[in-house]
Amino acid sequence: MALRVDYIAKETANNLVRNPSLTIATVLTVAVSLALLGAALVIQRGVDGLNTRFKDDVEFIVWLSPEATEEQRQSVDGALADSPQVRDHRFVNTEETYAEFEEFWKDSPEVLEAVSPEQLPTSYRVVPEIPDLAVVQSLGQEFEGLPGVRNVDYAGEYIKRLNDFTRVASNIMLGAALASAAASALLMYNSIRTALFARRREIEVMRLVGATNTFIRVPFMLEGMVQGVVGAAISTLAVFGLNRVIRNLLDQTSFRLFDSFALDSAQLFPVAMTLLGAGAIIGFVGSGIAVTRYLDA
Amino acid sequence: MIKLENVTKEYPGSTVALRDASADIDKGEFVFLVGPSGSGKSTFLRLLNKQEDPDEGRIFVAGKDIGQLSSWKVPMLRRNIGCVFQDFKLLPNRTVSENVSFALEVIGRPRHVIKNQVPAICDLVGLGDKVDKYPEQLSGGEQQRVSIARAFVNRPLILLADEPTGNLDPQTAIGIMRLLDRINKTGTTVVMATHDRGIVDTMRRRVIELSEANIVRDQARGVYE
After folding, report:
1. What are phi and psi of B91, to 5 degrees?
2. Which of A129, B145, B185, B219 is paired with A97 by a 20 to 30 Å CA distance?
3. Is residue B83 pLDDT above 50, yes or no?
4. ipTM value of the model?
5. pTM of the full predicted structure?
6. Could you report the per-residue pLDDT of A12-39, keeping only the tens digit for each?
7. Which of B42, B90, B105, B158 to mutate to test the interface with A (most CBs of A within 10 A)?
8. What is A59-130's CATH number, 3.40.190.10, 3.30.70.3040, 3.40.50.200, 3.40.50.1820?
9. CA separation, residue B101 to residues A18, B98, B112, B156 (Å)
């Protein structure tokens, strides 16, 4: 059986170099379509990461005026406690607010120097029963008018808008990726068909001397899968490169909100595996159809 | 070894290629199939190694009804049937010994078997000194010897030859016939379709004559007409 393995390896390699322009075209098409898929996956993971970061966070913040009295604070507290739509609320004092402030601006010491804890307002972080943006907004408005309340911020609103935008963007990319994956499977099909045609004499002889169908098919199927996986490897490198660019961009800003869009290697690994798997599937399907149509006929 | 029972083969949209043909060929026989072009000789041969399936009738090879054979067993049938053609069907980018070993490689024979058998068979067909030549460097007769070596290297029970001398001059053809005769003497059943009157008349073997898809004559030690 050792002979079989090196025979198949040799035949697959020969097939790949027999028609280099078509092989390269196929590999590149696979690479481009899978790079799109990879980018879409990275964005989706970024959005997921963004959501995880903010899921446990406040849905809205009731800021108290600096000059609010203790009675006013207690009446706001009471109103929050009594409201059936509020699941949970928490008072954040000036020290805590400053700690968050410090964390947020840690790369800009000049901002931190300009602000002291006493200057920062206190607030209530409110978690509503129903985390729906419309509900949260009408609920927030109830508290906006209370004495001692300066204003109400809906942290979730920005996240949700961003979320919607990136979801649409990544779905469009996913659609483009699927369309070009179909195109690369078709190109794969043609590439393998050409290889079958180039080797029609060998195939005829193989059949006459009694080679099994599997034996005839395997080098062609492998050829398709090698092209698919090599294309996938290129797209994986492209996605890694893209990720590095994103990380560098994020490192240059002090804005931490988008940190989740730069994936770490534990998050990139499944993306890479998905791409390599998709490449192998494109190769398998494209070459499989070609081989079935032209050898079993 | 080979038995046809009332075999009919019709190609879709065209005429009947073989009609109600019956024949019984024993192990070790040498049989000429004669008749004009289009009389059904090639179809007869193609039915025997299941390149075609009959529309009616049954065909037995080595005692087995090959109509009952499942498709994955067809390669095993073909390993027992060597084929030689008028146009040789050699692979131009492979040397003589590579062409011969190809037939063993693709049926998964171990390397040491190939190493032993290929030079031996090349000697047998008289090409021991040309194993590293490419087909285009050989004469027609030599190319046909390579194709016979390839067909015979796996020691098949049956050798089918479709006009093996059709492209060769008479002198060269005699050499090929001597080789086929030698192979036949090792016990291999040979069925050969031919137009070559001289060869048939000289060798005086069994002759099955086809005319317009019918077997019209089956004669031991026969002549061309």
Report:
1. -90, 115
2. A129
3. yes
4. 0.91
5. 0.74
6. 888 888 888 889 999 999 999 999 999 8
7. B105
8. 3.30.70.3040
9. 22, 5, 11, 15
